[in-house]
Amino acid sequence: MKKITVRYFAIFREHAGLNEETLELDARTALDVFELTQNRHGSIEPTGHCKVAINDEMADWSSAVSDGDTVLLFPPVAGG
Amino acid sequence: MKKITVRYFAIFREHAGLNEETLELDARTALDVFELTQNRHGSIEPTGHCKVAINDEMADWSSAVSDGDTVLLFPPVAGG
Amino acid sequence: MFEVSNERIDVEQLRKGIKNPKSGGVCIFEGWARNQNEGRTVRQLEYEVYEPLAALEGEKVIAEALQKFPFLEASCVHRSGLLEIGDCAVWVGVSSPHRDEAFKACRFIIDAIKIHLPIWKKEHYVDGDSGWVNCERCSNALSL
Amino acid sequence: MFEVSNERIDVEQLRKGIKNPKSGGVCIFEGWARNQNEGRTVRQLEYEVYEPLAALEGEKVIAEALQKFPFLEASCVHRSGLLEIGDCAVWVGVSSPHRDEAFKACRFIIDAIKIHLPIWKKEHYVDGDSGWVNCERCSNALSL
């Protein structure tokens, strides 16, 4: 188990009803974190549209997560 | 012979030393006017780069000129 | 220069910021909050920006544009917070000796910003409803 | 709307003129008098414009752009007379619902204006010399 801080943005934050939380998760990758928090953010389709960052750096869904990491879950962006 | 008013612009005007003049010319087309006034505007290469208008309408070098017309001789343009 | 601003974007100031005596061609793009989207009438827009990463990714986009289409000056500001119809949501300006690079770099920057930056747009409709743009398939399926 | 102006171009005013609540994408091109051309240092620019035809051809260019890349608002102003380095020589602004048409129409308009309008540019160099741009082959050969 790893201690992971998960941050939710935009529609994920609204769905979760909170900005962030620290969880004990059995997660190897960013995708694992996404799937283990699905009941919070509510999204069923991560790859392709959603993005992820680990400790303020853009990451891939296959990127490994470590104990103490902060994982940022981004719904599809819409700048401009 | 036709009475043609010829107007010179930009470098043509500077070369001619005048804005316009009315001439009696043996001209059938705009190109004839260009060639008959060559000693005024000084250009040796009309087509492709220079343009011509007759009575404030853009014209082709092959356009016919009539007695009383005003022919505008335009050196290569450089707007913007 | 890339910035996120919670205040009204000062376009005159930004335009002055890309002045350069060697510049002959300037291309500016502005995104404005418009009153319609996909058949619905929009009353207000709201941008959520994750600033630390948006600033970093924004600077990267400008650096990449400079590599591809060398220019003299460029800057970009993106709004966060609540916008009224007609407000400027994003400003991109590029100045270069000739116009071709200015147009291409400006287009590259706005296209990349819309794809890469952690920025989300929420539309508030006149009927009182609201919705996050591009998010039809996220969360709705499992909505509470 | 196309205009020739002998006064400094008021870019703020022009920008307001292309406002439309349906507009989401705005592309503006400005041509600025720059201090260099083909290796020579330029001190001032002078534009000669044959106004009756420039106005007519300018309106035609905007109408053609509207056919090709439908937009909501567009305007263009071109300077005549003497310009200092950094002055705006031409302003083109297009606003439309989406950015693609705004970029394409703006580019089309400035490209066409440079080709079709009876406008001539004279550069005054720091060495006191001057020359009409694009006119290497006209008159010089028969120069007095």
Question: What this model shows, in words?
Answer:
The complex is a heterotetramer, with two copies of chain A (80 residues) and two copies of chain C (144 residues). Chain A has helices spanning 11-16, 30-36, 38-41, and strands at 2-8, 20-25, 51-54, 57-59, 70-74. The longest helix of chain A has 7 residues, at 30-36. The mean pLDDT of chain A is 94. Chain A has one domain: Roll (Ubiquitin-like (UB roll)). A five-stranded mixed β-sheet of chain A has the order 2-1-5-3-4. Chain A has 80 residues and is α+β, with helices and mostly antiparallel strands. In chain A, 21% of the residues lie in helices and 31% in strands. By secondary structure, chain C is an alpha+beta fold. Chain C has a single domain (2-143), classed as Molybdopterin biosynthesis MoaE subunit (Aldehyde Oxidoreductase, domain 3), CATH 3.90.1170.40. In chain C, 30% of the residues lie in helices and 38% in strands. Chain C contains three helices and nine strands. In chain C, strands 3, 4, 6, 8 and 9 form a five-stranded antiparallel β-sheet that branches. The radius of gyration of chain C is 16 Å and the shape is elongated. Chain C starts with a strand and ends in a 12-residue tail after the last strand. The model of chain C has no long low-confidence stretch (mean pLDDT 94). The A-C interface holds A 9-12, 14-15, 38-39, 41-45, 49-51, 53, 56, 58, 72, 74-80 and C 31, 47-48, 50, 52-53, 56-57, 78, 89-90, 110, 113-122, 132-135, 137-144.
